[in-house]
Amino acid sequence: MDIVALRVSLVLAAATVTVLLPLGIWAGHALAIRTFRGKALVEALVAVPLILPPTVLGFYLLVTFGARSPLGGAFEAVFGQTLAFSFAGLLVASVIVNVPFVVQPIQRAFESIPQEVREAAACCGLTPLQRFVRIEIPLAWPGILTAAILAFAHTLGEFGVVLMVGGNIPGETRTLSIAIYDRMQAFDDRSAGIMAATLLVLALATLSATTWLGRPSRSRGPL
Amino acid sequence: MEHVGLSVTVAQNSPFPLDVAFDCGPDDVLAVFGPSGSGKTTLLRCIAGLHRAARSHVVCNGEVWADSGTGLHVPTHRRRVGFVFQDYGLFPHLSALGNVMAALGGQAAGQRQTVASRWLAAVHLTGLESRRPDSLSGGQRQRVALARALARDPQVLLLDEPFGAIDRALRGRLHGALDEVRRQLRVPVLLVTHDFRDVVRLATHVLLLEGGRCPAAGPIEEVTSRADLPWERYGVSAGSVFDARVVSVDRARGLAELTSSAGTLLVPQAGLHADATVRVRVPARDVILATCRPDGLSLHNILPAHVLEVGPPGHQVVVRLQAGTGQLLAEVTGDAVDRLQVRPGRPLFALVKSVSIEVHGPGDA
User: Fold this and answer.
1) Do A130 and B75 count as a contact with CB atoms less than 8 A apart?
2) Mean pLDDT of B158-177
3) Among B76, B212, B226, B293, which residue has the fewest nearby CB atoms (within 10 Å)?
């Protein structure tokens, strides 16, 4: 069992959720209540990581992260290391891969709030910010939690993009799913088996949490 | 002088035509009546600032809320409107009390709970403060929505089909609750409905809406006494509506004596209380015309009248009568119009069966 790889996986998943959740709430809300030109294109862009092969995504990220690209060059100038094959690069890649897993459930959650409820809140004298904080966020909360859990679980399991962008650097970019592949290549079936079981249990736990949170609840909190 | 009440002009061509202008005083209950799709809800939404019509001018108690000429559009949360939505629009994650408290943003936090409980008590919901909307009945939800709208301390109260999903018995009680609350609150009330019973029971004024246009508007007595309106097309049988006062109740005979602008009426409503004010509707179909005072009839109500107007000719003709200082509509056959020589100025007697007079108000069934 590669504890270091497990730690990299967990830190990466937590960091991905932390970065992506505020962005996802903002984007999901905007997509749910606004109509604007090019909305269909934005929605397609949000969904594209779902169907694109991880290698395609990894390829473009590597090109963008490379020292000859403006982004890669700037990163290297500031931090003295390449963005590709670093934890930071891995985090950026992970955030991009997880966009649909976060934005879509949050968008659905905001969309399911009846228009009348929003309008009633305005008629009660609540400002747009008060409506967002007191009415919309609490009502969309199950969707937001689902998004966080899905992104966490999905990051733990991501393989292709991680391998392309991160390489296989212990303690930096070697996640648990990469470590399993590594152990299998080395015919270390026992280690691979333990780690695979760990990921399976984590996946089951997070998915059952999502199902449980998705159930309509009658008794969560007083008011 | 500051203008008190609500003054509204709204016009647009798309997405559907709407062209209405009216004033509503602080003691008025204006019923906006018309078939679905006639623009009733949109009219309310324009007043609340939830819809922007191409041309609009909304002034409430001297404060301009919308003026398309200058591009002014005060956002909804800065207009003091109490809005009861068709499906109530209650906040599902908040208790009944929490829903009402949400409208009390201007008050100190400590006071909100007390004030909110008081509003719930005003609509007879004491004891249900901690219930969520999904564990309240339709009528209870409607009352929470009403309490929330009133808690906003509104300058205008907008009710969109508030009795739509409510059965008949409950409707009567809610009519009473609304009537009660309204008397304590001097604000214009706009009531959107497609059910004429709500109009008869609650309205002081009526605005008819058909395809976005307004064929008639004014005090209820005036509008319901118009012989030229196509009442059939509105799904309403013609009949004049007016207020009356209960003079006496004879429980032994099961009759109550009412006095109204049209004269004295006897109605079989022993449940009424003397001195109460009631709403009366006299269906035009149930008014018989006679050229002389008849004798030997079971009839109680024989009102001297003269003809003001004869409606469009046809098999059935609506005749507008002056009786006392009030007006009545009578629907008779075209043949009767010819035989009795019914024309403006002709003195007649209007005969009304007491059982056909509809009485609404405190103490009605």
Assistant:
1) no
2) 78
3) B293
